[in-house]
Amino acid sequence: MQVPFQFHHPVWIEDPNFNLDYHVRRIGCPAPGGRRELAEVAAQIASIPLDRTRPLWEAWVIEGLRQDRIGFVVKVHHSAIDGASGAEIMTEMYDLTPEGRELDPQPVEPERIPTDQELITYAAPVEATPGEGFIRPGQTHRGERFASRPRRT
After folding, report:
1. Is-catalytic flag, 78?
2. For the segment 63-99, what is each residue's pLDDT rounded down to a tens digit?
3. Over the stretch 15-58, which tens digit does the pLDDT of each residue have?
4. Bridge-partner residues for 76, per DSSP?
5. Which of 1, 50, 71, 77 is a plausible cystine mate for 62, CB 3.0–4.6 Å?
């Protein structure tokens, strides 16, 4: 979720309006459904930025490949997972047998969407802490001192 005026980095909340149909999509591969066509479809999917107003992931099932195969492309923003955790998540998504396995889904309570004022209040203490990029009163962005009033010439 974007903080107003980009006062801070976006914050992560559970989406109260989560829609699985938006995130898991189906698409057909053009004939003849070989590696070249699959690569073109995957490139097209990868070229479209993720919608930053929604959870930052998408999964695409690509149908129409040769030999009755399907393709699977997953896009996840790097702020959500890194390589190691991504590999771990993928091992949970796939099964080695067609029968699959029983899962015990855990319900997730969606969070209340914070107001703009709450987001700014959250960000203010972080932005007000002196550190790299912090401009103290009486300094320019380069750290030079300046007078509180402009001089007359």
Report:
1. yes
2. 999 999 999 999 998 888 888 888 888 887 788 788 8
3. 888 899 999 999 999 999 999 999 999 999 999 999 988 889 99
4. 57
5. 71
Taking the mean position of all CA atoms in its chain, how far away is CA 7?
Answer: 19
CA 128 to chain centre: 26
Give, rounded to a whole angstrom, the gap between the first and last alpha carbons of the chain. Answer: 48
Domain ranges of the chain: 18-93
Q: Please tell me whether residue 145 adopts helix, strand or coil conformation.
A: strand
Catalytic residue among 8, 23, 78, 141: 78
DSSP H or E run through 59: strand 57-65
| Widest distance between CA atoms in the chain | 84
Element (H, E) at 83: helix 83-93
CA dist., res. 94 & res. 19, Å (int): 21
- What is the 8-class DSSP label of residue 95? -
